[in-house]
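Input/output pair, single chain:
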Amino acid sequence: MSSTEGTSQKKKATAPSSNQLWNIIDNMSTKIAITNDDAVLEKSIAQYLPQLLSLIGFPDTSIRNKVMEVLTHINKRVRQTDNIKLPFEKILELFMNATDEKNGAMTRNFSIIYLDMAFERLEKKGEIVPQLFEGISTKLVSQQDVLLRLILEALPSIKVPTYGEQNEEREKFMATFASFKVNKNDKLLLLDFLRDYMLFRANYKIAGDQLDIPAGLSIQAIHRIVGPIKEGKTPNANVKVYDKKLAIVDFVYNSQLFEDNEIYQILLIGSLDGQQAVTSKCENAIKKLTLDYTDKTFIDERKYLIKF
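Output:
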């Protein structure tokens, strides 16, 4: 018997059975249930949650049901307090690397839910933007929406160097955000989303079949910006739209990660914003752009603006 065959048989022999796996998950559940201290509970969740998410697509129904039972309990415990942090980086790694076609889809779908929950409890949100951005265009649209919203939420936390400055801070920033210059599809997806947000206003409502939304946006764009919306509610009423727009302008212009033609439309829309600070910031940035008026992308963007 070859060494490869021997290794394969050894792996099969050591793989836990469904009954053993069920007992392991049950032990996780018990440890979480009897823990009353938030710090201890946080450590247990950090250890167990990625393992549970990796098993959500397990072929055995009893295992999947047991995992769901434990996840439901974790959700209940976590939502009772803001003191418990979730293992964001571990969940993100699981989300990015779940490639198995059959079981990986479920793992990714559940991981993105917990990424959203974990993100709310992060202290340094700006640091994880490059990880959220890389490969975003290859994800399912529903997953793109969540990742784009997380990136937007994190933008105000990013310290962007002043435009034109060439120093150690700029070098470090460019190295951190190097992925923004690699994949054009990722970049265009993000810029389209940020453009839509520059058109966004918080004072809209949905009532029955009637939806009062800002000019230039569709219901699909609104869903992408704010997530699922419910009748009679204004989801973004308490969100600082103004601060996010300033953060968008700072990021797309001062970062120097994008071509001037790529950000022109975002700045032009911002120059027509009702908030003076946003308007002034965009007007000043536009004056410093060097535009290629023959570029096809630039021409297409101007046609888009003419539509509304």
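The CA atoms of residues 47 and 267 lie 44 Å apart. Strands lie at 206-207, 210-211.
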